[in-house]
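SEQUENCE-TO-STRUCTURE ENTRY
===========================

Backbone structure tokens: a row of integers, each naming the local backbone shape at its residue.

Task: work out the structure tokens from the sequence, keeping to the layout shown below.
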Amino acid sequence: MNCRRCFIVFMLVVAVPFVASGQEAPVSAATQECLDCHSMFHPGIVADWRASRHAATSPGEALKAGELARKVSSEKIPQALQGVAVGCAECHGLRTDAHADAFDHNGSDIHVVVSPDDCRTCHAVEADQYSRNIMAHAYGNLADNTLYNQ
């Protein structure tokens, strides 16, 4: 079987049924507030999230999957995150004190850029792998390069 055929089989058997199910995990009240407003102003972003794994399952449910099927590598997830979908508030409201771009947005402290250290909450192994990747150091490599700065 060639690569194209393998990809098509994969999409039909694994990915399409997952996305087509339209199932969503329960959302937190904070994320629901985000969705209520942003579905009017940024419907594409909301639609992308609704089609994602983050919308379809909670970290608590993800922890129950078998080792090879797990998409969560952290063994301990904060209790407040376990029973709800990983939505807007769960990522953009996490660790706001560690983000220079944090600001008050309609009464909630949020940050725009979700960092690998935010993702580390649920994906510790992947965050460690990323930290050793050359792309994790791209900004520092450019900022410290005198030739680039000229």
